[in-house]
Amino acid sequence: MHEPRVPHLRGGDPDIARLVEDEARRQFEKVRLIASENYVSPAVLEATGSVLTNKYSEGYAGRRYYEGQQNVDPLEELAIDRAKTLFGVEHANVQPYSGSPANLAVYMAFLRPGDTVMGLSLPMGGHLTHGWSVSATGAWFRPVRYEVRADTGRVDMDQVRDLALKERPKLIWCGGTAVPRTIDFPAFAEIAREAGAVLAADVAHIAGLIAGGAHPSPAGHADVITTTTHKTLRGPRGAMIMSTAEHAKAIDKAVFPGLQGGPHNHTTAAIAVALREAAQPDFGAYARRIVANAKALAAALVERGYDLVSGGTDNHLILIDLTNKGVAGKPAAKALDRAGIELNHNAVPFDPRKPFDPSGLRLGTAAITTRGLTEERMPQIAAWLDEVVQAVAKGDEDAVAERVAAEIRELLAGYPMPGWAPAG
């Protein structure tokens, strides 16, 4: 049963209602290890589905292009104040539609087409919008890329400094989409100052860990901070840009009118709800449990002979190189999905395979931690994953996948899912 309930959807569009219900059941019955996913609270779901979706609010509080903003203005101001307090920043913009537009706004605020930008290479764990060639950021700007060390799997800060001083980028990104280790924000800040660059920290994956005190914060080090509001922060699908007061005007102008029209007020409301939830004491305990689960799962995988990029994790994310198992990432991910373990195939540093058929798997522990799973369950998850991967290597995974999926359904029946429960 969906919570909040959807009787009007069932009555008015049963086809969509059925798909919503099927998706909810799928989320309930699977060990969800996709590092960018989570479960939001019923309160976040209610805000997302509220009548605020009816209202158009181009502009900013007190400076709108439409009338009728008596409730939207204080709503957006509340979300901003909560973001500033939670992350300890001087300015916050809560209007970006998602993480990529938020990052594009940073380019618009500080760069002109053709300027140099530096970011972590995509195959090394960086993000498309940090200057990768198939992204607009790689086509419109001059990208230079730093890497991780082959021997450690960690960012080579000496290379970052040498590259920054040689290329003199106007913008340096730190953070990424597959970075399992703590980001050294002070070191990046020192390099950016020396090179005369703006430092932008993309904390989309670790924002919830930062809010909960389980990862160091870039506040006070980075000029600009971008983040999505889902993932570890456990909010709706949206984004924020935070900055020092010095850059507030440039950031706001880049978001609107630079890139976007009216903000999605229902999403803004849900962001505000999630930020309030993240400010509660129990969220800090949740963030620490995410990391504890990730470390326990990583240790269990290492015990079973899995090669982890950088040897382990400091956050929620684990990156597995399956080369020594004789299996590619894509067939392993598909078999694991059939077995009730949801994750994604992913490139690993210095991957000899193509991006659409890479060597690795990426997984994270935010969603299973929301469900209430603890460190004691991580060896069993590692055992299930190992059974399926071994079966794929032998070309005989169907029976194993079916059995493991049934065992996972039995386990997860004892762990409630926010937003849905089986009909009693």
Automatic annotation (TrEMBL):
Cellular compartment(s): Cytoplasm
Alphabetized InterPro entries for the sequence: PyrdxlP-dep_Trfase, PyrdxlP-dep_Trfase_major, PyrdxlP-dep_Trfase_small, Ser_HO-MeTrfase, Ser_HO-MeTrfase-like, Ser_HO-MeTrfase_PLP_BS, SHMT-like_dom
Site note Plays an important role in substrate specificity, residues: H230
Alphabetized Pfam families for the sequence: SHMT
Keywords linked to the UniProt accession: Amino-acid biosynthesis, Cytoplasm, One-carbon metabolism, Pyridoxal phosphate, Transferase
Record-level Gene Ontology MF annotations: glycine hydroxymethyltransferase activity
Known cofactor(s): pyridoxal 5'-phosphate
Residue positions binding (6S)-5,6,7,8-tetrahydrofolate: L122, G126, H127, L128, E246
Catalytic activity: (6R)-5,10-methylene-5,6,7,8-tetrahydrofolate + glycine + H2O = (6S)-5,6,7,8-tetrahydrofolate + L-serine
Domain annotation Serine hydroxymethyltransferase-like: ranges: 12-384
Broad class of where this protein is predominantly found: cytoplasm
Pathway(s) annotated for this protein in UniProt: One-carbon metabolism; tetrahydrofolate interconversion; Amino-acid biosynthesis; glycine biosynthesis; glycine from L-serine: step 1/1
E.C. no: 2.1.2.1
Enzyme class: transferase
Residues modified as N6-(pyridoxal phosphate)lysine: K231
Xref: CDD domains: SHMT (cd00378)
Biological role: Catalyzes the reversible interconversion of serine and glycine with tetrahydrofolate (THF) serving as the one-carbon carrier. This reaction serves as the major source of one-carbon groups required for the biosynthesis of purines, thymidylate, methionine, and other important biomolecules. Also exhibits THF-independent aldolase activity toward beta-hydroxyamino acids, producing glycine and aldehydes, via a retro-aldol mechanism.
HAMAP family, per the entry: SHMT (MF_00051)
Family note: Belongs to the SHMT family.
Subunit text: Homodimer.
Name of protein: Serine hydroxymethyltransferase
Gene that this sequence comes from: glyA
